Amino acid sequence: MISIIPILGDQLSLDLAVLRQCDRATSVVLMAEVAEEAGYVPHHKQKLVLVFSAMRHFAEQLRSTGWTVDYRKLEQGGIGLGAEVQAAVLRHKAGQVVAVQAGEHRVCALQAEWQATCGVPVALLEDDRFLVSRAAFAQWAGSRGRLRMEDFYRWQRQETGILMAGGKPLGGAWNFDQDNRKPLPKGRPTPPAPHFAPDEITREVMAMVEARFPNNFGTLDRFGWPVTRADALATLDTFVGTRLKQFGDYQDAMAEGEATLFHSLLSTSINLGLLNARECIAAAVAALDAGAPLNAVEGFVRQILGWREYVRGVYFLEGSDYVRRNALAATRALPAFYWRGDSGMRCFDAAFEQTRDLAYAHHIQRLMVLGNFALLAGIDPFQVHEWFLLVYADAYEWVEAPNVIGMSQFADGGRLSSKPYAAGGAYINRMSNHCKQCRYDIKQKAGPDACPFGYLYWDFLARNEGPLAKNQRLWRAYDGWRRFTPERQAEIRADAARYLAALD
Ligand code: FAD
Ligand code: DLZ
Ligand code: SF4
After folding, report:
1. Among 33, 75, 149, 189, which residue's CB has the most CB atoms within a 10 Å radius?
2. Any idea what the CATH number is for the domain that residue 109 is in?
3. Which positions ≥6 away from 414 have C-beta within 8 Å?
4. 0.85 exceeded by pTM
5. Which residue out of 254, 343, 345, 373 has the highest number of ligand 3 atoms within 8 Å of its CB and is therefore the one to mutate?
6. Are residues 89 and 231 in the same domain?
């Protein structure tokens, strides 16, 4: 009996559960580029090229390891995954379909219909590339009143023994965050970011994407993402060899002309399946023996073993309506400068420019600049979610939505995170050198030249006093607000009102 194995665009792993379970002799792998997936949001052009090129390269790799692959290019007119699976069952006279559960609610719902539409049994396997299964996360979450990444992370450290010694955290502390908040010193060199020149397959996909998606956001000129496992492994090696040592120190830094600093650039590869999360963690831990400092290694491990697994758990736990949460009732439309990069705020426009040109911004730019601005300005979180889902090469709803709706916009009312990541310009000034080149003046406290992050921060607190003032972690912030004279409070709110009115 022939089995059809549909492999989705973010399941590009040779050790995928379904490939371990099925037999090459009696299986046909189905990979399909379809309009539905290419269009559920108008993805950045680089994301489309990345996914389709990586899919095409993976199909070649599967063939070279003895698998029969039925590959459907977008040019062949595929509308949706369901129709493609159904057609493949008929084409190959298959008796069953075996697949790995999709990574997001929308595609899980499609998979649930396959059995009815195809008329053959459909088996869906757990995606065991994640360290924590959906059921294990639900069990962990079920036993506690509040969800916190820190608790999850400590549990995972204990469960896996990673960075543990004799049942205690290595180095005597669970995290070294206090060491990981340094701005980049002036003149400090940073290693060049890895760049993979597009090969023939990628160039063909680039031409196809330019022709079919000419109006999608972003540019392709600087496309250099890893599209094969070999390129992804090279990115991991380069990171561990040249950037990891400083990863901790400058994890939160931002700087003019520095798109990547010491970040790993691994999210696209891990999310696609070109790299396994476990091997990235293992490579970083092994670097301890080569002299990588614990604050760097722990900082990196925390992102993958902690945050990455945690947000995925929250995503499935919270259900498909999570993206519609709006705990702070924010309703303003996304400003046009999220598409044009002409806000005049240098920190924002710098993050925008690299987002447009590289489909990448590092965590602090996403959280403390692009996301922070939307939070302070009261932008509708669903619009913020859609923007983040389409502008980054590593964006998939399971990881993007908890980061945006939960961490960045606090639209889930604190389910994922204990306080909103709201900050004024002083934070950005401390962690970057953008303010020196900005048209706004970080030192001015009021008026049209004052930094918008300043008065918008206080206005955000004042506007949301109802839902937020009782939050223990915001006590100091509200205390600061209350210490202003009524005249100063009125001045701040007038500046914010003027600025926000101009946005609308
Ligand atoms: P590094 O800084 O080198 O971190 C190492 C790895 O840790 C990353 O490759 C990633 O796999 C993991 N990681 C780090 N932070 C997180 C996190 N908060 N959640 C999950 N994994 C994490 N990440 C995505 O993969 N896709 C997204 O669509 C996405 N959207 C985001 C939106 C917002 C508003 C915020 C605040 C964060 C978002 N993140 C997203 C998380 C994080 O910003 C990116 O994973 C990271 O910037 C990718 O760059 P890097 O590989 O150089 O990461
Ligand atoms: C992101 C993406 C895109 C743009 N296109 C396809 C596609 O044509 N075919 C496919 O199988 N997968 C694609 N993907 C990845 C899927 O959207 C991803 O598998 C789901 O979002 C589940 O996480
Ligand atoms: Fe950003 Fe304000 Fe600094 Fe300008 S002055 S770069 S808007 S923080």
Report:
1. 33
2. 3.40.50.620
3. 327, 471
4. yes
5. 345
6. no
